């Protein structure tokens, strides 16, 4: 059975829902959550359906299940706050954007951290970059028990932190650092989600803070530029030069925290973001 790694930090009447990535865990959002809470926000780090357990438990879920768990968590949190912000890392960023598209009346702003529509970063081997073919594999029942095993640098530029995370990842405790690999069929679900979100980006009117590592090893900065160019609401872009994919825990996490807190607070007080998407 999946372990619960969710966290809640009580603050004021402004809430932030944090969403982790595919095969990940709320732990990857915890430092951002603590930082936002110190700035006064009420923060919930949710756990996606099927995550923090076994590979079979993950494979038993679809992207619709993952999104349903996001909407349920958002509905619970919005009942306790006056303003609701949602922020996600990697696939979590896509789920945050989908919530903003489908429930615009709920979402005051979005934190888009390392958005991953495609695995096209510099560390992804050519076989991984062909993973967009996986929906076809799943459709024909090919490779249900196959996974892409995570490879160094595991989205982390800081070498000491990388060693700690990789040790936890391969320890068997998926609630601590997630699964060590991405099952093919779960990746197929991610690509189905990405296709759905891509089609609805133009309906996102909430202000978006798009934070992405320039040298993202997993998802190129083109993923962030896709969001910037297609959403309809105001946009601020934060490009990070000393991090890899896991920007919520890597060397510039404090910059992510500070910019996010400032971005959300300005929206609450009625100030608009300074840069608008083309």
Describe, in plain words, how this protein is organized in 3D.
It is a single chain. With about 280 residues, the chain is of the alpha/beta class. The protein has one domain: Alpha/Beta hydrolase fold, catalytic domain (Rossmann fold, 3-Layer(aba) Sandwich), CATH 3.40.50. It is built from eleven helices and nine strands. Strands 1-3-2-4-5-8-9 form a seven-stranded mixed β-sheet, with helices on both faces. Helix 1 links the parallel strand 2 and strand 3 (about 40-45). Helix 1 crosses helix 11 (about 255-270), helix 3 crosses helix 4 and helix 4 packs parallel to helix 9. The longest helix has 17 residues, at about 185-200. The radius of gyration is 17 Å and the shape is globular. The protein starts with 6 loop residues before the first strand and ends in a 10-residue tail after the last helix. The model has no long low-confidence stretch (mean pLDDT about 90).
How much of the sequence is in beta strands? 15-25%
CATH topology: Rossmann fold
Give, in order, the helices and strands.
Answer: EEHEHHEHEHHEHHEHEHEH
Shape: globular
Strands of the biggest beta sheet: in what spatial order?
A: 1-3-2-4-5-8-9
Protein name: Carboxylesterase
Pfam family, one: Hydrolase_4
Organism: Luteibacter rhizovicinus
Domain Serine aminopeptidase S33: 15-251
Keywords:
11 helices, seven-stranded mixed sheet, Rossmann fold, alpha/beta, 278 residues, two-stranded antiparallel ribbon
Helix/strand layout:
Elements: E1 7-9, E2 14-19, H1 27-38, E3 42-45, H2 55-59, H3 63-78, E4 83-89, H4 91-102, E5 109-113, H5 126-129, H6 134-139, E6 147-149, H7 159-169, H8 174-177, E7 181-183, H9 184-200, E8 208-213, H10 222-230, E9 235-240, H11 253-268
Parallel strand pairs: 2-3, 2-4, 4-5, 5-8, 8-9
Antiparallel strand pairs: 1-3, 6-7
Helix pairs in contact: 1-11, 3-4, 4-9
